[in-house]
Amino acid sequence: MKVAVINFSGNVGKTTIARHLLLPRMPGAELVSIESANSGSEQGPALRGWQFAELQEYLQTVSSAVVDIGASNIEDMLDLMQQYSGSHKDFDCFIVPTVPAVKQQQDTIATLVDLAQLGVKPERLKVLFNMIHRGTTVDQAFYLLLAFLADHPIATADTACRLRENEIYARLRRTKLSLSELASDMTDYKALIAKAPDTPTKIDLAQQLATQRLACGVLPELDSCFTALHLAAEPSVLPRAAKKA
């Protein structure tokens, strides 16, 4: 399974979805970052949008990959994909994350239109509704995009493919641990807090406890979202110890 995560718009959660939703649930998948800046991925190769020939070659050598395409590289990628006729077929699925802001919804529509014009079929072009506010439904948050797709069914828009806003993703940027590792952490932070010698130490431990709890809470949502994408891979199972946390 080879999946591209793509959107003309920035700040829609492409990297979060690639690293924390897809990669852990696609055993053996390689992560490829397509980005002009901050592209030094520790998990896989990093390329630029104009290096599409190299990307094509690389994709022929692996059986499973998640390609995270930065917004600044998408135009180059799509232009070259058009030149290399049929190259979109190297990807089994294009996942287009979107967020409620109107501009991002408009950019999402533009992304879907361009991919459809390349020949990507609706069943291989999937919208993922991201960063939904608590108390808001997908229908309410994404009325503009859903109205467009109702008139122009060029992509798959399953409202079960959704993720809500969650502080855990900001916290992940401050740690090298994965979500599963955080959720599986059996440290008794409350006991450590009770024994801590000073307030700064207590606060640091309390923050670690909060991160652990957030990780345990978000994994079921990620599993449900992944299942709704109907990719040819099984969602990861939360470790037994984490389920008890």
Question: What's a quick, concise take on this entry?
Answer:
The chain has helices at 14-22, 52-59, 74-83, 102-118, 138-141, 143-151, 168-172, 179-183, 189-195, 199-229, 240-244, and strands at 2-5, 30-34, 46-47, 65-69, 93-98, 125-132, 162-164. With 245 residues, it is α/β, with parallel strands linked by helices. Helix 9 (189-195) packs antiparallel against helix 10 (199-229).
CATH superfamily of the largest domain: P-loop containing nucleotide triphosphate hydrolases
> What share of the residues lie within helices?
40-55%
Task: State Rg.
Answer: 19 Å
- The count of strands amounts to 7
Which CATH first-tier class of the largest domain would you pick? Alpha Beta
The tally of structural domains comes to 2
Question: pLDDT average, as an integer?
Answer: 89
Walk me through the structure:
- The chain has 245 residues and is α/β, with parallel strands linked by helices.
- The protein folds into two domains: 1-165, P-loop containing nucleotide triphosphate hydrolases (Rossmann fold, 3-Layer(aba) Sandwich), CATH 3.40.50; 167-245, no CATH class.
- The chain contains eleven helices and seven strands.
- The protein has helices at 14-22, 52-59, 74-83, 102-118, 138-141, 143-151, 168-172, 179-183, 189-195, 199-229, 240-244, and strands at 2-5, 30-34, 46-47, 65-69, 93-98, 125-132, 162-164.
- The model is unreliable at 233-245 (pLDDT under 50).
